Amino acid sequence: MKAASSILAAVILAAPAGAGGFLDAAKVVPGPSPHPGYHLAESVPIFHDVRCIPAPYFLNTTLDPLPNPLGAPFLSLADAAGAIEAAIASWNEIPTSFVELSLAGTSDNLAPLGSFDTVNEVTFRTHPQARAFAQSRLITLAADMTLAAGTDIDGDGDSDVAAGFATCADADGDGDVELPAGFYRAGTVLDNDVWFNTASVRWTVDDDDIDNVRQSADLEGIAAHELGHSVGLPHSPVNMVSPTDSTPATMSSSDTDDPVNELSKRTLEKDDVAFAALGYPEGTASSGPAALQEEDVAFDDFYGLISGEVRHGVLGRPVAGAGVSAVDRQTGEVAVSTYSGSSTRFYSDPVTLDIILLPGFQSVPDGRYVLPVPRGTYDVRIEPLDDFPMPGWAVSYTGWVGYLLGMLDFHEEAWNGLGEGAIESAPDRAQPIPVQPGASIEGIDFTTDRVTAIENFGTWDFVLYADAPPGSYYAVRIPGEQVLEAAGGKRFGIASVDFFTYVLDNSTLPRFAEAMLTTGRALPNGTAEIDLDRPLLHASPFLGQENDFSPLYAPNPLALGLRVDGGLRLGRIDSLFLVLRVPIETPYPGFNGFAPVIGIDGPIFGPNDVPVHGLSYRSFDGQTFFQDEWNYLFRLTLTPFAVGLGPP
Known about the structure:
This protein has 648 residues and is α+β, with helices and mostly antiparallel strands. It contains nine helices and 41 strands. The N and C termini lie far apart (79 Å). Strands 26, 27, 29, 35, 37, 40 and 41 form a seven-stranded antiparallel beta sheet that branches. A six-stranded mixed beta sheet has the order 1-7-12-6-4-5. It folds into three domains: 6-279, Collagenase (Catalytic Domain); 302-450, Immunoglobulin-like (Sandwich), CATH 2.60.40; 453-640. The longest helix is centred in the first third of the chain and has 16 residues, at 77-92.
């Protein structure tokens, strides 16, 4: 029996599963490294090899009933296994994907978080200091490699590779699963342990037991999310499907304070399904798991592809970690979302994620993306994975690299065909893209816009005012001289007013009564006089985004900019005000009945990173606007004057 070689041991990586697209692992690039102890690696997607489909998982049976940190134990292992089976079925039943998982047996492993033993395990054994609700821990092959029969991958003295088998099987009858001898690509899953925290989480399986207690969670919904990581999917930024549907993707973050949100995680959304299909496409082989079976649908009979590249309009480089979404033009529904780019870097420790980036921007060789979409007509949009709604490091290694390099500092925009470029007169203007099944629409390339954001705040610290009175107002003053200074003496367009919005019940929409850009002035007594009757830009109602900046776009940015510029220069405008109004109707929607809230910057836990500027105001009646003690996260976005019109 061959022992695991030092080379093989060195190229086994644990993939990030903290949290569209795919999780990525590192593929070692052969050759010497200028950094002792580090390997040069490029990103590759994580996947289960087709010879190991269905991928076998073993249920740890050493805890029954499951511990309940909030009271007496009540959930049997058999009932928990039923919820795991239901979550597995949600992935197995995708008609356009051949991915398949199975509970193939049991395990008596006493390790608290699983171990590298080439056995895929589902366990409720938890380290007492574990903080995450659950985690999918993936160990993958980090080099293209031919595995010979008898190879001991995990170093336990037992062969993990067998000859004479075409599929993964318990070849030696010892209870674990051996790989068939042969060639395997980097990114192949060698071991996946999915664990659920029973040290600080109460798990439920019955609908009636789901509540708004933060440390109590629906097992099936969380399991569906973690098993999505198991098949290679990262976190999804799709936290509201459409302007009328607040349902988040299963692979987006979970809200255990909101029972409706918890239940929704059990059902996969289009974004979840599309990338499971792209990673494991049905109808792409004449035999085996990828061959069409009864009730299967060939990938090419249902999906077309939209592809392109994202480049940074200031840096002039490809972008890693741009969120790219296809939005159905008729319904406003987000059909699918992914991230751009690939990455190359030096890595040392796959557990601590110790990496060294290449000089300059060499760690990002491209900004490519691919979106699988059903038949339809789409607007394609980009936004930075810049912490809101999630950071690049929570999505993939590649997103992390883009985050570290400071590439994710652009504003969201739509692809607008021939008008696409670093300077655009209307970033929200979209060119429709019709797609048919089996078609590949290429060249949908973005260049991020060069804009100037006037932001009178520091880092996001928290959200406030879940108990806001109906119809009350928030406002931020932008002094006129600050606008002219930001424009640098040149003419400008006003692309948007951006409000940071958030909901505490994730199953609700961040809908406000109105949003506007208007004029006014600060008064000596600390209040403000704001013209609510003659706004420069207005929307009612105003639908925000969840945990993100929500833009109110100007229909004609250049005309609005000229109007404001002239008013400021002639003294007719003293200050601009960015105004957002709380919904008028009550009760507020959602299980907990909270108002939609706004992002706040302020010294809540100690010194603040920037001063409180005294530019944020509240009003309960629309008449008296009094200064608040925080900086609201509202900003004004200026765009350069259109090419051809020139500066004044």
